Amino acid sequence: MWVNTTLNEVYSYSFKVNPLTLVTNIKYCMGNKPTIAISHLGCEKNRIDTEHMLGLLVEAGYDVDSNEELAEYVIVNTCSFIEAARQESVRTLVELAEDNKKIVITGCMAQHFQEQLLDELPEAVAVVGTGDYQKIVEVIERVEAGERVKQVSAEPTYIADETTPRYRTTTEGVAYLRVAEGCDYRCAFCIIPHLRGNQRSRTIESLVTEAKQLADQGVKELILISQITTNYGIDIYGAPKLAELLRALGKVDIPWIRMHYAYPTGLTPQVIAAIQETPNVLPYLDLPLQHSHPEILRAMNRPWQGQVNDQIIERIKTAIPDAVLRTTFIVGFPGETDAHFDHLMQFVQRHEFDLMGVFTFSPEEGTAAYQLPNQLPQDLMDQRRDALMSVQQPISLKRNQAEVGKVVDVLIEQEHPETGELVGRSSRFAPEVDGLVYVQGSAPLGAIVPVEIYDADIYDLYGEVIASPTHPPLGKEFVGLA
Fold first, then answer.
1. Among residues 227, 195, 223, which one has the least CA distance to residue 207?
2. CATH code of the domain in which 456 resides
3. Predicted structure pTM score
4. Of 30, 472, 22, 49, which Cα lies nearest the Cα of 279?
5. Structural domains in the chain (count)
6. Residue 51: CATH number of its domain
7. What is the pLDDT of residues 390-404, one digit of tens each?
8. Residue 165 belongs to some domain of the structure
9. From residue 281, how far is each of 71, 174, 262, 275 by CA, in Å?
10. What is the pLDDT of residues 203-252, one digit of tens each?
11. Which of 414, 415, 403 shows the shortest CA–CA distance to 451?
């Protein structure tokens, strides 16, 4: 494939030993090339960029190590979505600079602040934009030759496919599949189109090919991501093709296929039918609603959504009674009044989402919302976030307690080194953002096993592995997906 057999075996072994380590002390010497470490920050889209850079560096013969102290170069794949993410990126860069590391800055912050980073951080030997990570080997070679490199395309247009080297950094049972990059929408609060360009989708054939490669690697859960997954295919097919993609991926031997970022207006009858009729597509819908009040949605440049939120949610619940609904909201958007916020509180109480995240508005320079009047103070935004979460928590607890007494499928991902307790997720939980299942008993990492749930709290479930030769096959009919 994209890496020689020996290296592939070495890397695969490293993840079996410790699947949560980025790359565990791999020292496969291939000449006098420098040792490189990668520090990954940000979202799963950034993670895929990191994985491709790892694959390209390994293929080119570079020694890649998870220990930054042993590396000559540290590639920092940064996030610049909101102020808090930038602060984390800056802290990481400053710490590495203080350790006298040669720093290659990649990702959204490199795309966003390329000139400032080079001006203010002498230790930065290169900045690489979001549409240029595929050139990482060339960048390192240029730096080694004495050049200080700025490799940032003004408008990102690149998207990696199944032919691009990739080395996964997730647990061995999970992989992300990027179906598209960039975004054509211009939500007032969001800087992503500026950082990652307009939408560009991969073909169905390309995605199915990579899914089969991942299945051959033992992946049990495939998570489809893009900025707006329900818009998949519009740019190359002239119409959204998510339903067709789900049906095609459903033929790949992977038990769980999960969608992230399903824009509510894109959940057409065709997409809902594909979810219903494709057994390994999980009825888990991540709906980035952001708000409920039509006036705030209009100010967010999402005017169409306010008229259909309730309709869409009820239609989903009717069509897919066992659907797990996750959403995110922004509180404190400029001009949000007490009445707007009360509308959102009632919306959450009415629909009882299974899972929910809440963020306070972050004014991002370069977005339409940055200059809007009536900006709210941070302490008020914090109060509203906490109040909304206090409404959600008993709902989440009720949803989790409904799992007690059931036997559910759990993907085992970690083992506590001292207690031996297993940690995994049921199909109700996505990695990083949702809860966990703490499991008593024995099971191999990366396996999906039946677990009887005996306890639950607001966020997590607790269960025990059951041994049953008659355990039903994976699929929507199994109670664990309820």
1. 223
2. 2.40.50.140
3. 0.87
4. 472
5. 3
6. 3.40.50.12160
7. 999 999 999 999 999
8. no
9. 41, 15, 13, 6
10. 999 999 999 999 999 999 999 999 999 999 999 999 999 999 999 999 99
11. 403
